């Protein structure tokens, strides 16, 4: 089954259970001070859960564009290094708003994965919430009893609050959950160790695919749980992980969701995927980050120096640097992958097609602008690293990291990533204090600026001095005539 057929099978299944299919909400959240990006399928239904808004339909299903790079759910550092966490991913989901509850949710999940999609029962594990004294909650006996109708008791496990109590953020709708994990190891590996011991242990082949959340509470700002007026079901299944399972692959990146983009990338850089660990990581990171960036721009969020825009810029610059260092790109390349991405996902997400020109243009400009300073920045950082190694401190000063940020456009997390690759760290306190000084300088400067972007046509007639970061959504490229 290719990924398009899998997506359709999921939605069709829930249509057959009287669900209404709704569109994905935008990935970029505009009007919620608690959330920058959609991080789960349920976000768009928050007000229904809280009882602030009636549900148009009591049963809905969809595929939701999610981004997990900030706040409570941040998977950025895992991406590319593991094979099943992405920045942007699709979350398939079905919801009940004060309609069906645990029994149907569990039975349908089982019916879809096992009966319809054919995942073998002996490879499946279900977890249920063990309870938490802090919140005065007990073991979810109900969910456990339902799973025991489908699975032997060795495959029904208790999980702690971290894994089995789902919360959108520090506040908001939440509740106990029951998760489905799949063991994809080869038989000889499975004979050596039961999969039950590897559930929730970050094993790349024993992975969580579906989370069934029973939304019953609202977490208040003071940390207390308040019962919601009604009970709801909120489920989320990683689409790319489901594709890996159903296509018999051992990595999300080996599915057709990513393979076309990786193949194009491999052609562009003249390397083969699967030949060198470092280049492979770089290819995975780029194939992943491309999606986060393209979907953000399609939603109207351009890279900038502030909030959500800076998150997108950071992701893009990470991708550029992976390409530069490990795939030897010296010119803009990411924008050339947009076409392939569109061919792959444009049916399900038409915004990729309608915004293609804008997406390519913005990515290309961003890449070119960063590539102008990347080489010098990397050279400087190399020198700093040798110095730090020589003196044995293994730490680069915050002042240097700040210079990289301010003059060469290196986001701090990028500098930290490069340092980590070399076993070094940065002095964060020093960096923060430099940033503070900078902010007060720019507050004065901002008052005098009239325009927020200085565009110079003939770049070769000027010497690029760096970026000046201002407080608001403003970045000024500083140039000097030569
Ligand atoms: P994990 O434990 O693997 O980090 P999670 O428990 O944080 O996953 P949930 O919040 O329960 O994930 O989200 C529901 C489903 O979405 C997961 O079961 C998984 O299939 C998928 N998922 C979660 N995070 C990611 C990600 N970063 N990339 C791809 N799929 C993801
Ligand atoms: Mg997670
Ligand atoms: Mg989990
Ligand atoms: Mg989970």
From TrEMBL:
<keyword id="KW-0694">RNA-binding</keyword>
<dbReference type="GO" id="GO:0002161">
    <property type="term" value="F:aminoacyl-tRNA deacylase activity"/>
</dbReference>
<keyword id="KW-0820">tRNA-binding</keyword>
<dbReference type="GO" id="GO:0000049">
    <property type="term" value="F:tRNA binding"/>
</dbReference>
<feature type="domain" description="Alanyl-transfer RNA synthetases family profile">
    <location>
        <begin position="1"/>
        <end position="482"/>
    </location>
</feature>
<dbReference type="GO" id="GO:0006419">
    <property type="term" value="P:alanyl-tRNA aminoacylation"/>
</dbReference>
<keyword id="KW-0067">ATP-binding</keyword>
<keyword id="KW-0030">Aminoacyl-tRNA synthetase</keyword>
<keyword id="KW-0862">Zinc</keyword>
<keyword id="KW-0175">Coiled coil</keyword>
<comment type="similarity">
    <text>Belongs to the class-II aminoacyl-tRNA synthetase family.</text>
</comment>
<dbReference type="GO" id="GO:0008270">
    <property type="term" value="F:zinc ion binding"/>
</dbReference>
<keyword id="KW-0648">Protein biosynthesis</keyword>
<dbReference type="GO" id="GO:0005524">
    <property type="term" value="F:ATP binding"/>
</dbReference>
<keyword id="KW-0436">Ligase</keyword>
<keyword id="KW-0547">Nucleotide-binding</keyword>
<keyword id="KW-0479">Metal-binding</keyword>
<comment type="function">
    <text>Catalyzes the attachment of alanine to tRNA(Ala) in a two-step reaction: alanine is first activated by ATP to form Ala-AMP and then transferred to the acceptor end of tRNA(Ala). Also edits incorrectly charged Ser-tRNA(Ala) and Gly-tRNA(Ala) via its editing domain.</text>
</comment>
<dbReference type="GO" id="GO:0005737">
    <property type="term" value="C:cytoplasm"/>
</dbReference>
<protein>
    <recommendedName>
        <fullName>Alanine--tRNA ligase</fullName>
        <ecNumber>6.1.1.7</ecNumber>
    </recommendedName>
</protein>
<dbReference type="GO" id="GO:0004813">
    <property type="term" value="F:alanine-tRNA ligase activity"/>
</dbReference>
<keyword id="KW-0963">Cytoplasm</keyword>
């Amino acid at each position: 089954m290719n990924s398009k057929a899998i997506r359709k099978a999921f939605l069709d299944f829930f249509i057959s259970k009287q669900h209404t299919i709704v569109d994905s909400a935008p990935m970029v959240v505009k009007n919620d001070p608690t959330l920058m990006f959609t991080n789960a399928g349920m976000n768009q239904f928050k007000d229904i859960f809280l009882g602030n808004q009636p549900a148009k339909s009591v049963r809905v299903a969809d595929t939701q564009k999610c981004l997990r790079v900030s706040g409570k759910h941040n998977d950025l550092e895992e991406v590319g290094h593991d094979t099943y966490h992405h920045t942007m991913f699709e979350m398939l989901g079905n919801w009940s708003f004060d309609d069906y509850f645990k029994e149907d949710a569990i039975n349908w999940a089982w019916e879809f994965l096992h009966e319809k999609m054919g995942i073998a029962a002996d490879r499946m594990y279900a977890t249920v919430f063990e309870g938490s004294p802090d919140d005065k909650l007990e073991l979810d006996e109900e969910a456990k009893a339902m799973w025991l109708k489908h699975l032997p008791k060795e495959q029904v496990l208790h999980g702690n609050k971290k894994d089995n109590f789902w919360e959108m953020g520090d506040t908001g709708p939440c509740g106990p959950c029951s998760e489905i994990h799949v063991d994809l190891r080869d038989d000889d590996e499975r004979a050596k160790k039961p999969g039950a011991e590897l559930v929730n242990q970050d094993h790349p082949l024993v992975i969580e695919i579906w989370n069934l959340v029973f939304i019953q509470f609202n977490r208040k700002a003071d940390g207390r749980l308040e019962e919601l007026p009604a009970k709801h079901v909120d489920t989320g299944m990683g689409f790319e992980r489901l594709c890996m399972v159903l296509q018999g692959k051992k990595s999300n990146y080996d599915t057709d969701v990513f393979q076309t983009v990786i193949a194009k990338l491999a052609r562009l850089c003249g390397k083969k995927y699967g030949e060198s660990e470092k280049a492979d990581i770089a290819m995975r990171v780029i194939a992943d980050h491309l999606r986060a960036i393209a979907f953000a721009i399609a939603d109207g969020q351009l890279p900038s120096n502030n909030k959500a825009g800076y998150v997108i810029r950071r992701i893009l610059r990470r991708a550029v640097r992976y390409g530069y260092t490990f795939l030897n790109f010296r010119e803009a390349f990411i924008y050339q992958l947009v076409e392939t991405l569109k061919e792959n996902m444009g049916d399900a997400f038409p915004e990729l097609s309608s915004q293609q020109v804008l997406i390519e243009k913005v990515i290309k400009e961003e890449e070119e602008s960063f590539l102008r300073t990347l080489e010098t920045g990397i050279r400087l950082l190399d020198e700093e690293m040798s110095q730090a190694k020589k003196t044995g401190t293994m730490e680069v000063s915050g002042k240097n990291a700040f210079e990289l940020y301010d003059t060469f456009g290196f986001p701090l997390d990028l500098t930290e990533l490069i340092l980590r690759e070399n076993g070094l760290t940065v002095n964060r306190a020093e960096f923060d204090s430099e940033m503070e000084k900078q902010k007060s300088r720019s507050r004065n400067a901002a008052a005098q600026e009239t325009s927020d972007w200085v565009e110079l046509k003939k770049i070769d007639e000027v010497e690029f001095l760096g970026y000046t970061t201002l407080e608001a959504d403003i970045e000024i490229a500083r140039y000097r005539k030569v």
